[in-house]
Amino acid sequence: MWTAIHISHNPTAADQIKSLLEQEGIMVSLRHDSGVTEVLVSELEAEEAHEIMADKMMLHSVKDKRK
């Protein structure tokens, strides 16, 4: 079963998250509805997907602080 791990009003951001997760071997689907895009993954991979996203956000945060 698929579960939403992120909801975005920005379809480009959702596509970037999809690409990131796919690079890490996570199966991802996007669902567009009513002006939002949901990033969907298997319930079995949801926790791993959240961890990947959190790690990536931390890397961006560290890089931003170095500027």
Give helix % range: 40-55%
Order of SSEs, N→C?
A: EHEEH
Number of domains: 1
CATH topology: Alpha-Beta Plaits
Radius of gyration of CA atoms, rounded to a whole number: 12 Å
The dominant shape is globular
**Largest sheet report:** 3 strands, antiparallel
Structural class: alpha+beta
The CATH homologous superfamily? Hypothetical protein rpa1041
How far apart, in Å, are the first and last alpha carbons?
42 Å
Strands of the widest sheet, in order across it, are 1-3-2
Q: Which architecture would the CATH scheme give at its second level?
A: 2-Layer Sandwich
Say how many strands there are.
3
State the CATH class.
Answer: Alpha Beta
- In the predicted model, the low-confidence regions spanning at least 5 consecutive residues are none
| Number of helical stretches of at least 4 residues | 2
What is the arithmetic mean of pLDDT?
89
Name the beta content range: 25-35%
Explain what the structure shows.
The protein contains 2 helices and 3 strands. The chain is an alpha+beta fold and 67 residues long. It has helices at residues 11-23, 46-66; strands at 2-8, 28-33, 36-42. A 3-stranded antiparallel sheet has the order 1-3-2, with helices on one face. The mean pLDDT is 89. It is globular and about 30 Å long. The protein has a single domain, classed as Alpha-Beta Plaits (2-Layer Sandwich).
Blueprint of the fold:
Blueprint: E1 2-8, H1 11-23, E2 28-33, E3 36-42, H2 46-66
Antiparallel strand pairs: 1-3, 2-3
